[in-house]
Amino acid sequence: MKTYDTLAAVDLGSNSFRLEVARVAGDQLYPLDSLKETVRLAGGLGADKRLDDATQERALACLQRFGERLRGLSPEAIRCVGTSALRVAKNAGEFIPRAEAALGHPIEIVAGREEARLIYLGVAHSLPASPDRRLVVDIGGGSTEFIIGHGLKPHERESLHMGCVNFSKRFFADGVVDKAALKAAETAARVEVERIAKAFSRGNWQQAVGSSGTARALREIIEQSGWSAHGITADGLAQLRAQFIRAGHLDALELPGLTRDRRPVIAGGFAIMAGLFAELEIEQMDVAETAMREGILYDLLGRFHKHDMREATVGEFMRRYHIDARQAARVRQVAMNLLTAQGGSGAGDDNDVRFLDWAARLHEIGLMVSHGGYHRHSGYILENADMPGFSRTDQARLALLARAQRGALTKLPAFASGTVSDNDRLLVWLLRQAVILCRNRAEPHLPEVKVDASNKRFRLTLPEGWLESRPLTQRALEEEAAHWQAVGIKYPFA
Questions:
Q1: What is the CATH number of the domain that holds 382?
Q2: Residue 421: helix, strand or coil by DSSP?
Q3: pTM value?
Q4: Does 244 lie in the same domain as 140?
Q5: Are residues 92 and 142 located together in one domain of the fold?
Q6: CA distance to 68, 86, 385, per residue, from 94 (Å)
């Protein structure tokens, strides 16, 4: 595994886009550069959950500027992550390719609980060591993440669909912040938080920590107004509520520490914070200077230092779903041998090798649901389960490999439509052959083979006479050739 002396993270938040560049020194990161632009992606979501054109253009212009800063850095040392607004947007599939072209790098969309894990990782690295269990709360533009953890390890993670942008748009769109609007917004926040209150209430942690823009803005206002000596307090929030009501409108709000770009979304962020303070019985909250972007950097650093969370997740899933480790190892070894036999062209890069490894180890995960059609169950689990370290894009790729491990390829939309990538097509072929060759769940004792692969043809050459004593395998390979022929791929074997 390569190592890099500079890493970069791009956080495509629902309120702001942020870019962080850091220098690597051992297991530590030291900031080199930081860029932030207020894009308000969540504000561009209409009632139909589609991003409007103006917001898309604003986002693309920002990403072009970020892309210039990233030039010269190794692509493997850069990770770009999208969050709530891109999870929700129905036209995200149309927008993301344009965004990737503007930025010059692929964009991963992460699930809410994975976002929570990355937030906790970033926050935990900036806090002093403590024996206490910590509650970390991050009020973003489109969602709010809740994490309870100890040290660098999160134990409970949740994500609720409420953020400073969508709450401001919902309850304070005209700028009015009267008593009725505030009460309605705070009540709505409490209703959402009530769903997770049992796991995240006061008795489950000793210290509360806020992160990201809303928490920092509220701390600045409360401290500079003299309502708290340190951090956000319940009394400080009560004082701020009175100031909102007294002003009556955002334009009339004059508060120390309130910046121009934060003003349009401060009421929504306040209502969420006040609601969760009340529902989770929080009296005081410290505020961290780090958040998700630092978490992305540390997660990326871990991948290069053999602390890849995805590897830990695969191991945990093998245990949790009682996967036959010996069979998984056999299938993995045969798939890797076939990959090596074809010379590494096409799918020889480290990332493809990792995905083939993970898919082989997890391909039978669906057996815990049912033997019949287990490959479909495997695909469903891998696409929808909470898998720390994996983005939605990662999980969709694993799911494709798992679903495609057996059966008719024409039933899979990516193959039926011809949109599957050349690399994924090869990974599917490698996994399918490994599953066939290991069907009797014993060591296949497969001598040296030859593999030729292209985007229109696969060829497997087995040792002379090897198939003669294995009629079941020969029949399976004949059926396999027919499946590939159905999607326009020639597959002669001998």
A1: 1.10.3210.10
A2: coil
A3: 0.87
A4: yes
A5: no
A6: 23, 11, 25
Residue written as token pair 């891109």: 86
Q: Does residue 455 form part of some domain?
A: no
Which letter, b or e, does each residue of 81-105 get, where b requires 16 or more Cβ atoms within 10 Å of its Cβ? bbbbbbbbbeebeebbeebeebbbb
SS3 content of the chain, % helix, strand, coil (to 5): 50, 15, 30
Question: Which residue range forms the structural domain that includes residue 381?
Answer: 308-447
Domain count, the chain: 3
HEC profile of 221-250: HHHHCCCCCCCEEHHHHHHHHHHHHHHCEH
Contact between residue 47 and residue 76 where contact means Cβ atoms under 8 Å apart = no
Q: Which CATH number is 15's domain given?
A: 3.30.420.40
- Whether 456 maps to a domain, the answer reads no
Same domain (yes/no): 280, 407: no
Of 267, 301, 335, the last residue of a domain is: 301
Specify whether the CB–CB gap between 49 and 161 falls below 8 A.
no
Tens of pLDDT along the chain (494 residues) come to 577 899 999 999 999 999 999 999 888 899 999 999 999 999 999 999 999 999 999 999 999 999 999 999 999 999 999 999 999 999 999 999 999 999 999 999 999 999 999 999 999 999 988 899 999 999 999 999 999 999 999 999 999 999 999 999 999 999 999 999 999 999 999 999 999 999 999 999 999 999 999 999 999 999 999 999 999 999 999 999 999 999 999 999 999 999 999 999 999 999 999 999 999 999 999 999 999 999 999 999 998 887 889 999 999 999 999 999 999 999 999 999 999 888 644 455 888 999 999 999 999 999 999 888 999 999 999 999 999 999 999 999 999 999 999 999 999 999 988 889 999 999 999 999 999 999 988 887 877 888 988 878 999 988 888 888 889 989 999 999 999 999 999 998 77
Choose among 434, 466, 453: nearest CA to 492. 453
Q: How far is CA 133 from the centre of its chain?
A: 24
Alpha-carbon separation of residue 78 from 155, 195, 249, 262, 354 (angstroms): 27, 36, 42, 28, 18
Does residue 369 share a domain with residue 399? yes
Asked if 387 and 439 sit in the same domain, the reply is: yes
Q: Show the tokens assigned to 277.
A: 């303070």
Please tell me whether residues 278 and 417 are part of one structural domain.
no
Residues 6+ apart with CB under 8 A from 239: 222, 225, 227
- Are 339 and 395 members of one domain? yes
Domain co-membership, 276 together with 139: yes
